[in-house]
Write the structure tokens for this entry.
Amino acid sequence: IAGITQAPTSQILAAGRRMTLRCTQDMRHNAMYWYRQDLGLGLRLIHYSNTAGTTGKGEVPDGYSVSRANTDDFPLTLASAVPSQTSVYFCASSDSGDRGADTQYFGPGTRLTVL
Amino acid sequence: GQNIDQPTEMTATEGAIVQINCTYQTSGFNGLFWYQQHAGEAPTFLSYNVLDGLEEKGRFSSFLSRSKGYSYLLLKELQMKDSASYLCAVTDSNYQLIWGAGTKLIIKP
């Protein structure tokens, strides 16, 4: 593994189903982030984690949850998917979260469609 | 509120120069990033400015004026592979990145 990986690459999901998007980084970065990207709106932060064991809410956290049990993994869960959660989801990481303005490195993204 | 403004779309000719502007209003400032995003791909880092002035990196340069809340990305000797979206993002006082919606750059032969 080099950098950040996300799985699945794409998914079609029925409304009401539970879904977990996976994200793994091998750069030993402290901070990790989940964004959604919708046409014309740019990247919007869902949840973040400045270090293993801590998480925080971003701009659009409703309907999503995260956990950070270790440095490498940062899964994003949709408890009961709704069509408005159709989007492209990017995971990112940076060396420091609240301790500096570091470059964020992005995974390849997951394209999620909720029907 | 916090706001990042950049043009939605720009068109330029191969071999030419293009300037993509970004204006921002944020609670605090701890740096400004430019990212490039090709269609269907992830954003990738281009440049970072925290002090006023011009940062040059090959064909790409980025300028910052903190007093004006303004930045631009200058692309020289445009190539077809430069067709992409260019995202401006500002780190606020809480070190959270605030993203602009991006500028789609179309390069014509």
